[in-house]
Amino acid sequence: MTKKLSLVEIEYICNMFFQYFEIPVCFLDCNKNILLEFTSKNDSHLLYTSKIEQLHVLFQRNDT
């Protein structure tokens, strides 16, 4: 039996990963839009202006 997780359950799991492992967590939809984000306020990268830009670079690397 396969059960799909609700967005509330996914949010809880993402938050747990962020809290316990202290790693940034983003949950994306099929169109690569950020639905949930758990990051530190000062968790930024000097080469990118936004998290969306960082994700686009990652997706481009994996699409080739």
How does this structure look, described?
The chain has 64 residues and is of the alpha+beta class. It has one domain (7-63). The protein is 44% helix and 14% strand. The chain has two helices and two strands, in the order αββα. The chain has a two-stranded antiparallel sheet with strand order 1-2. A hairpin with a 5-residue loop joins strand 1 and strand 2.
Count of DSSP H/I helices: 2
**Order of strands side by side in the largest beta sheet?**
1-2
| Backbone structural class | alpha+beta
Got a strand count? Answer: 2
Beta-strand percentage? 5-15%
Helix content: 40-55%
What is the typical, i.e. mean, pLDDT?
A: 80
Radius of gyration from the alpha-carbon trace, in angstroms? 13 Å
Distance between the termini: 35 Å
Based on Cα principal axes, name the global outline. globular
Q: Order of helices and strands, N to C? A: HEEH
Described by strand count, sense and barrel closure, the largest sheet is:
2 strands, antiparallel
* pLDDT < 50 stretches: none
Give a concise summary.
This protein has helices at residues 7-21, 51-63; strands spanning 25-28, 34-38.
Keywords:
alpha+beta; two-stranded antiparallel ribbon; 2 strands; 14% strand
SSE layout:
Elements: H1 7-21, E1 25-28, E2 34-38, H2 51-63
Antiparallel strand pairs: 1-2
